[in-house]
Amino acid sequence: MAQAPHIERQEDSSTQRERRWLTTGGPILFLLLWSAGFPIAKTGLHYASPLTFLAIRFALSVGVLLAVCAVKRPQWPRNARAWLHLGVVGFLVQVMYFGLSYLSMTAGIATSVLALIVSLQPILVGVLAPQFVGERIGVRRWIGLLLGLAGAAGVIVARGTLHAEALGPVLLAIGALIGITGAMLYEKRLGTAQDPVTSNLVQYSVGFVFCAPMALLFEHTQVQWTPTLIATLAYLVIGNSLIAITLLLAMTRAGKVSQVASLFFFVPPAAAVLSYFFLGEVLPAAAWWAMGVAVSGVAIATWNPRK
Question: Domain-by-domain residue ranges, the chain?
Answer without folding.
Answer: 34-144+163-252
